[in-house]
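Lab notebook, bench 4. The sequencing result for the construct came back, and we need a structural model before the next group meeting so we can plan mutations. Quick request posted to the team channel:

Model the 3D structure of this chain.
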Amino acid sequence: MKAYTLGIFVGIVVGLILTAVFLKAINKDGKMKTKYDERQKEARGKAYMYGFYGVVLTNALFLVLSSSYDLGFLGLSLYFIPILVGVIVQVTYSIFHDAYVGLNNNMTRFIVGMTFITAFNLFIGIMAYIHGELFVNRKLQGPFINLLCGGIFLVLSVELAIKKLIDAKAE
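Done. Here's the predicted structure in token form:
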């Protein structure tokens, strides 16, 4: 196994461990699993379905584009972008159908955690850009995925703020 491949694998494992710790920290009861009511579960099911369609359509688009263009410049992000699109679709649907925030979530901890995750990912991507490591041989490198992750957390924050404003106005 190449060192680069091992590094990606270790990064994924560490990310999953940190995700488990984060999930336990943001829930009031200290459990990793977020609790949802029946209406939220139904809406989340639809959100996952739409997210799946987002992944499929993005992959189909890349398939069509790759028949005319070389998408190799995207590097590993070629495989990550469809996942990202699916997550954005799922999260957006969940937020605007009141199915994102669970019954046992501590929103203050959630916001602090998301702020840290956003800043960390954007920092890695920006530093890679500053040091000329974002593109190597005209191909996007791993830190571009960090920029994408930072971007998705920014989108999430904006959507949550918009939803909060909509709810406040409705009251």
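The chain has five helices and two strands.
Will bring this to the meeting.
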